[in-house]
Amino acid sequence: MILGASMALLVPLDTRRRCCGGGSYQVKQKRDWVLSDKIIQVYENYALYRRADGVCNSHILNNGKGAMKREQKGERTKRRMAEALLSLLSERPIGSISIRMITEACGLDRQTFYYHFADIYALLKFAFSSSLLPTLQEAQRGKNMQVSFRQVMLFLQENKRAVTTLLESGGRPLLREALYADAQGVFAATVIPRLKKEGVSARRAEEAAQTCRRMVVSVIIDWAEGYDCRAPEDLVRATMDDVEDYLRGVSLHSGAR
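^ that's the sequence the OP posted. Answer follows.
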């Protein structure tokens, strides 16, 4: 709009002369040119503002992309250190592992380690949760109690030393929380529909699913802490038999046929 107004005033002199009357032309000419100069200045200022605004928006956008890249790089660095720690734990106890061993294994320095973690135990908790989470998510997608249970037990067995160290360093709540979150989805998707189909009320079915979850999680933690020495396959089979007996009892007690 501003550009249109300024261009309308910047017409050839002979054309402007025909549009102006007699002796008033000189006054109109001077006034028009002063007005034109002002409009041009306003337009130029506006154009500069738009360019500056574009530069500012581009700067913000670039900063956002840069922050995202830095975050992704930091996450990759943490995972590299976590993998190095789990690899070292498969060979020796955590008391024999130093920060230098971890950083050298993944080509980093001590400063980078301390930028992300306070100590080795903080890295251990990150390593365990970041490694266990995909396993739990995969187990939950299966929507099968026994298969999900077996997947979790095999993961814990493969990382037995890391699990033991985690529990000894106060990581029991972390393990319990992760297992409960996974078991909740699995049992909600299997136990509740089954019991409802057998005539059990929705409330009773939900309570039964919670009980099954507590049964399985307690068995897993007892095994991880060394209180149960059975092989994972035997543990899974026996526990699932107990779960099935319990669910049959819930159905019978509720009068389902």
